[in-house]
Write a structure and sequence with these properties.
132 residues; mainly alpha; two-stranded antiparallel ribbon
Length: 132
């Protein structure tokens, strides 16, 4: 945005990259008009509609993995798995959103971002294996 190069700018770029990867939308997408941005799009939909903003191919891959890993899994396991995936997606989107805050002072330091991502990773891993 015409400012000096800074670690705060790098954090912003990282946040936008995370949002791009998980929504499959670029900040220049035609839907972002009249003040709507990728950051606002993710922030608005996060709480109640995280599944609606996630790149559908990411969800398809998780569903295929779940189907192939256990054919006889019960509905409670399936619900727990989808609930866990939803929680992780919300955590990852939160990282992207907080990193892409407009004001540099509102963005976390990169070591805090790393800590948040490690929490996501630990949550994703259960008993040494990934949730499928």
């Amino acid at each position: 945005m015409g400012n000096e190069v800074s670690t705060s700018g790098d954090v912003y770029s990282y946040g936008i990259l995370v949002l791009e990867m998980f929504t499959a939308k670029r900040p220049t997408h035609s839907m972002f008009i009249d003040g709507m941005t990728l950051h606002n799009f993710a922030k608005t939909a996060l709480a109640e509609q995280v599944e609606s903003i996630v790149d559908p191919t990411l969800l398809q891959q998780t569903e295929q993995g779940a189907a192939s890993s256990s054919i006889n899994s019960g509905q409670s396991q399936s619900f727990a798995r989808s609930h866990k995936i939803r929680e992780i997606l919300i955590s990852i989107f939160n990282v992207g959103i907080v990193c892409s805050e407009e004001l540099p002072r509102d963005r976390p330091a990169m070591n805090e971002v790393l800590t948040r991502l490690h929490v996501c990773k630990k949550s994703l891993l259960r008993d040494g294996r990934r949730i499928r």
